[in-house]
Amino acid sequence: MFGRVVIIATAIILTGVTAWLLIPLTNPNWLTRSISMARPEASIRRDILRITPLGTSKEDVINVIKEREWHIEFTRDTAGYFMNRGRVSDGPNLFMLESGDAFEVGTQSIRIGLANFYIFGIVDVFVDVYYAFDEDSKLIDVAIRRP
Q1: DSSP 8-state assignment for residue 138
Q2: Which whole number is the average pLDDT over 64-76?
Q3: 111-147 pLDDT, tens per residue?
Q4: In the list 17, 115, 118, 141, which could disulfide-bond 127, CB 3.0-4.6 Å?
Q5: In the chain, domain spans
Q6: DSSP 49-105
């Protein structure tokens, strides 16, 4: 009797684990539904580029953002985003521009708020994604900003 219960319990557990592992594979867009924010910025960027590869039109990027229900913070049609000493920002630090430590990426940009969550209920953590586009509205770069 006890052996039979163990076999049934094992079968139920194995079925559950197998289903948990295989269900994402039935949806070709499973990666695009959730992106782990606990990983390094380079890993998040790699996932974003899988969803919206370089060369994607601005219109298609906006459609993907809407499909994923991500929040667009702003769209700029006349300015890219800025890199200040290796960190992405909304605007240039004028001192860094003069010294050559800051530069603009792209001629158009979109910033989305990918996540905003709390660690231990105290520390507010955000993840912003910056998309840069060229003059033809094609995606040329993606940058991630976290604190």
Answers
A1: B
A2: 91
A3: 998 766 555 556 566 788 999 999 999 999 999 888 6
A4: 115
A5: 1-33, 34-145
A6: HHHS-TT-BHHHHHHHHHHHTPEEEEEESS--EEEETTEEESS--HHHHHHT-EEEE
